[in-house]
Amino acid sequence: MPVWNGEKYLAGAIDSILAQTWTDFEFLIIDDGSKDRSPEIIETYANKDSRIRIIRLEHEGIVIALNRGVAESRAEWIARMDCDDIAHPQRLECQLTALQSSGSDLCHTNIRVFGDESLINRPGRFIRSQALLALKLCFSSPIVHPTVMFRRELFLKLGGYLPAERHAEDYGLWGKFMTHGKIIGISEPLLNYRVHTESISKQKSATQKSISDQISLRHCKEFMKLDESNALLAFAALSTPAKNLPITEWIWFIQNCLPKLERKSLEMFAWVISRTARIIFSK
Q1: Considering just the CA atoms, what is the radius of gyration of the chain in Å?
Q2: What is the pLDDT of residues 115-157, one digit of tens each?
Q3: Is 265 found in the same domain as 170?
Q4: Which end is more exposed in the chain, N or C (fewer Cβ atoms within 10 Å of the end residue's Cβ)?
Q5: From the first residue on, what is the mean pLDDT of each consecutive set of 10 residues in the chain (283 residues)?
Q6: CA–CA dist 61, 84 (Å, integer)
Q7: What is the pLDDT of residues 216-240, one digit of tens each?
């Protein structure tokens, strides 16, 4: 759990981890140079629970904080958590069971969104298959970062979070896990995800979009074996709102790009059919 001036919601986030039904874990809290009461709050909890380990940094940013936390950890599995969210009591137990029983390398879960009502966008239908996940990764980041649990060894092998992708560092990582590992999703909401005006995603939305678009293009090229020009066209076909997309461009995508996607599933084809209908009936 990286923390930077998170005093407002920090206690609730820590409490939700300490209340997990799975109790055999170490809890690394990376204080990234907080100037508010966060260090005091963390220290109070650490004095009461030996599972908490505090790592103190000068303010280096979330990418360095996250990579440092994983590097310092001693466990096979890493669960991500933000200092303003609330984990379901069975989150760690459910994710660990799913990973071990399926032989997967990364597990993500559904969420409940709460907080500032004016900022809330309800999450769409939860993605179950790796095929639809791969397709979605070609134009968006469908995995909610603080819901993930992943294999530490593979994370390190893949190079971790990249400083050049700061503010979208998780999106780039999901693509690497998709290419080199196996991802499983749990449709049950195991995290209460808070939205508020102080969150990084709200403060850095323009920067985040620019970096995310670059990652989307990379995924289009990798997952559908496209060259640069066709990847740009594929990204446009996927990311343009249905009401604004010419049907000819969508048909071109279905004929020339979709067949090259390595993974296929009924869920993926159902999504393509649904989008096709939205494009046709919006004209």
Answers
A1: 20
A2: 766 655 666 789 999 999 999 999 999 999 999 999 999 999 9
A3: no
A4: C
A5: 96 98 98 98 98 96 96 97 98 98 97 76 81 97 96 98 94 97 96 80 71 97 98 98 97 98 96 97 85
A6: 17
A7: 999 999 999 999 999 999 999 999 9
- Give the residue numbers spanning the domain of 250: 227-281
Distances in Å between the Cα of 255 and the Cα atoms of 103, 150, 234, 252, 260 are 34, 35, 11, 5, 9
Separation of alpha carbons 279 and 89, rounded Å: 41
Q: Could you give the residue ranges of the DSSP H alpha helices within the chain?
A: 10-18, 38-46, 62-72, 91-102, 130-136, 152-157, 169-180, 200-203, 205-224, 228-239, 247-256, 266-281
The amino acid present at 266, given as its one-letter code, is L
0.85 exceeded by the pTM? Answer: yes
Quick one: how far is CA 50 from the chain centroid?
A: 29
* Domain contains 221: no
Between CA 192 and CA 115 the distance in angstroms is: 10
In 3-state terms, what secondary structure has residue 184? strand
**CA pair distance 241, 258, nearest whole angstrom:** 18
d(C-alpha 14, C-alpha 45), whole Å: 8
103 lies in the same domain as 182: yes
C-alpha span between 25 and 19 (Å, rounded) = 12
CATH number of the structural domain spanning residue 133:
3.90.550.10
